[in-house]
Amino acid sequence: MSYHRILIYADASPQCYHAAKAGLELAAALSAEAALVTVLDDVAAIGNIDAGQTHAEAEALLLARAEELLDQLAALAAPGLRLTRFLPWGQPAEQVLATVEAWPADLLVVGTQGRHGLLGLLLGGAAEHLMERAHCPVLVVPLR
């Protein structure tokens, strides 16, 4: 199977850097397009009125952190690699799956620590969920 569009899920975890590097290297080796997706979680954008942070301030901070993450990961890409970025708002797994469909990707790359549940013991919670529901192959990259 040949891959032409590789979508890489970034969630600011240590394993996402390993996954991004693997996905970007694979895209360069295959002369494929690559895309990075990080999801802006609505729940995290609520803010904390008791701490003096409004909803708008929380949203702005979340967006700035997400853009910084994508900048750091994009810096790992080989020169000339066609790279797209996605910053959807919502529930992370659902938005990643929606991006797989909308872009449309023919390979999804995710990182894992490998700690949750029986299958999650090998793959990790988010990776397991995405692997079960994605309509394309999923490359799971472990932290080590």
Automatic annotation (TrEMBL):
Q: Which domain of life is it from?
A: Bacteria
> UspA domain: which residues?
3-142
InterPro entries in alphabetical order: UspA
Tell me where the signal peptide lies.
none
CDD domains documented for this protein: USP-like
Which family would the database say this protein is a member of? Belongs to the universal stress protein A family.
Protein name in UniProt: Universal stress protein
Name the source organism.
Answer: Hymenobacter profundi
